Amino acid sequence: MPDIILHHYDLSPFCEKIRLALGLKGLTWSSVKVEAVPPRPLLDALTGGYRRLPVLQIGADIYCDSEMVYRALERIAPEPTLYPRGEGIAKALSLWWDRATWKPAIGVLVHHIGEHLPEAFLVDRKTNYLGYDISKPAMAPMLPAYVQQLTAFAQWLDSMLAEHGDYLTGSAVSAADLTCHHTLWLLRANCGADTIDAQLGLSNRVTAWLDRVAAIGHGTCVEIAPEAAIEAARAAEPAEPGIGCNDPSGLAQGSRVTVTPDDNARVPVEGLLVAADAQEVVIARKDPLVGRVHVHFPRAGFEVLPATEAVRSVA
């Protein structure tokens, strides 16, 4: 079993769903705590400046975005699978949930605890990450709409559970459960479960499902220093990708490309195209701190385009 390193921070809901995935698969993993607000120079050496968390590291292979992390974990530990009813429904539901609920969830969150959020966090999210002001005064006028949206979505969850049983896509937990859990986890953990359950009208069926997902736990975690993760990358060689190079848009292996999220935190990561298929793209980068690494991204939710300038950081 390869050494698994997760770069994350405690209150990130996107990190929580990966912690649960590690727990579902019963894995032992190393934890590197990352600041919620950059700069993150050691993590940047691994990712090429990718702004979002979580990031999974296995030696000199770096996996960005929770969808890509799920795929890596399926390769490492195929059972129990994150996709007991197939990938399509779980992935589509996960992508929809992340994008549809994120802004409403922030609006509800800051209504309850916005005065406690650090100014540096608010400035960063407005200027560099989301592109809009998430302070309590700025979000307040739309609070009724945010509550309406989340209430509607929570009823959809109830309908899925009424049809399928204990979990959203069937009798076994899937990636969709881990993803849809994380937004409500964020709100209940920070604002109080009773408060959020009442405000959003969460049914007993939904709250029982939330409890079942939370009970999965996080597996076995060992804290390590960020420097240890850097050393692990420097001491390793990237694994040979098993997907070949068949980019659906015709990008050639070895070409310079940028990979950029298509929604927020739109910081491009540059590298040489190593491998690609319809679901994954792998680029090579070289950094003085870590040497050569392969950085993996999913295709859904990302733009992979020819680089317009020379990539000086690639071997």
TrEMBL record:
Q: Enumerate the InterPro entries for this protein.
A: Glutathione-S-Trfase_C_sf, Glutathione_S-Trfase_N, Thioredoxin-like_sf
Q: Where is the GST N-terminal domain?
A: 2-81
Task: Tell me the enzyme class.
Answer: transferase
Query: What is the protein name given in its UniProt record?
Result: Glutathione S-transferase
Provide this UniProt record's keywords sorted from A to Z.
Transferase
Q: Name one Pfam family in it.
A: GST_N_3
Instruction: Look up the domain of life of the source.
Output: Bacteria
- Which is an annotated GO molecular function term of this record? glutathione transferase activity
Q: Which E.C. number(s) belong to this protein? A: 2.5.1.18
The record's SUPFAM superfamilies line, in alphabetical order, gives:
GST C-terminal domain-like, Thioredoxin-like
